[in-house]
Amino acid sequence: MWLGEQLNCDSWPKQFNKCGINRTPVAFGKKGAILNISSASGMYPVPLLTVYSASKAFVDFFSRGLQAEYKSKGIIIQSVLPFFVATKLSKVRRPTLDKPSPERYVAAELNTVGLQTQTNGYLPHAIMGWVTTALLPAKMLNSYVMGMNVSQRARYLKKQKQG
Ligand SMILES: NC(=O)c1ccc[n+]([C@@H]2O[C@H](COP(=O)([O-])OP(=O)(O)OC[C@H]3O[C@@H](n4cnc5c(N)ncnc54)[C@H](OP(=O)(O)O)[C@@H]3O)[C@@H](O)[C@H]2O)c1
């Protein structure tokens, strides 16, 4: 279920709970799985990507809430929270261990369906998720991510200036 599809399908917030789910196996009395793509950016605030991060936290909570509602009907609704994957969106050109190709990521992710309702989907990402949420103090993480994004923005603006 794509968030974009849901946002297009009816007005917020009156109809939101009905959106998307009525196109899924539950509408036909079947069992099935719905994978909602959130992001690791939804696991904690990402300054300078605040709207993206907040919207991904929404996708995560939305999915987990729906999973609780539909579990008894045999429907799996999984919240997927990847770190970087080498796609057009991320602009990562060369896959690495921590930034896998989409094929590699998806193959690993699909092994978690039915086992985890909320997942980073890929072992190196699960380790990164654990380090960033369970090991690092939130304050430290916040200033690290802010610093990283400030320098990324500065690089981008410099490049724009140079034409
Ligand atoms: N890549 C990452 O590092 C990463 C990390 C965490 C989460 N995510 C999430 O993963 C999801 C997929 O991203 P991706 O990395 O696979 O990106 P991608 O390779 O750029 O693919 C995005 C897909 O969304 C489609 N799309 C874009 N805007 C759309 C719109 N307005 N209506 C309908 N379809 C639209 C694109 O269609 P066209 O090809 O026709 O443009 C494309 O098929 C996103 O929700 C992203 O936030 C990605």
UniProtKB/TrEMBL annotation:
Keywords: Lipid biosynthesis, Lipid metabolism, Oxidoreductase, Steroid biosynthesis. InterPro entries: NAD(P)-bd_dom_sf, Sc_DH/Rdtase_CS, SDR_fam, VLCFA-Steroid_DH. It comes from the Eukaryota. Gene3D superfamilies: NAD(P)-binding Rossmann-like Domain (3.40.50.720). PROSITE patterns: ADH_SHORT (PS00061). Coiled coil: none annotated. SUPFAM superfamilies: NAD(P)-binding Rossmann-fold domains. Pfam families: adh_short. It is found in: Endoplasmic reticulum. This is Estradiol 17-beta-dehydrogenase 12. It comes from Ilyodon furcidens (goldbreast splitfin).
